Amino acid sequence: MSEEMYTQGLQQKLDVEKWLGSEDAGRDLCGSYIYCAYCNKAEDAPCANAYIRMVEAEKAAEQSAALAEADAAVADAAEDAAENATEADTLIALGKTVDVEDVMKRKAARKSLSFAEKYALSDEIVKERYAVLKEALTTTPKGTPKIKSRISRQCDTYRRNGDIVAKITIIGGSLRINLPLDPDAPEFNDGKMPHTATGHKKVYAEVPFQFKVNSKLALKRALRLIEMVK
Asked: 178 by DSSP, 3-state: which?
């Protein structure tokens, strides 16, 4: 599909969503969506181009933030880890032993860390939000199939009867949850549920809807999404 065809298709989709939303709201919602801030009405497909610019801006901001967080984490995590380290200079994170000195060396060299290592270096807010998500995912009514967690090098994966229910990762110091929801579904594209479509990556093929849990409001929304999946 050419870029022009994609843009026109996206414009048609957004036009329909805007029309339906306006019908429900009883007023014209043009100019009220998040992507409207990037709009240039002189263009042939103003909504589509505005949406594309918004996504590109979010990706650029996310990359910049990740780099900034990585640089700051080298110093901050060393201090945090030192406060919690044992005499042997190790931490127990998610049932795994983490060598603080080795982790900090690889962090400084920008080498990849395991999920447990990233968790060990995370601040208390991230750990608290992770605990809330884990509790929500693994708490099931009596008599229903259990949802079990398995921590791998890359993430914490939750399965029920062999099917993936969710994956939790930590990227650039940010807690994220991937769920088996359709990123293109209209109910998730009303500007109130910012998310990223990650289905093109093999590791997220079964859980293409990625949601960043970086605030109290985001945590509440993540819990609602978990209930939808469960």
From this structure: strand
| pLDDT tens digits, 66-86 | 776 666 655 555 555 444 444
CA distances from 176 to 24, 130, 166, 186, 221 (A): 32, 9, 10, 21, 12
Vertex 73 angle, CA 69 and 76, to 5°: 135
**Backbone φ and ψ of 172, nearest 5°:** 60, 30
Q: Please give the model's pTM, rounded to 2 decimal places.
A: 0.56
**How many other CB atoms are found less than 10 A from the CB of residue 140?**
12
Q: Where are the extended beta strands (E) located within the chain?
A: 90-93, 96-99, 148-151, 156-160, 163-171, 174-179, 196-197, 209-212
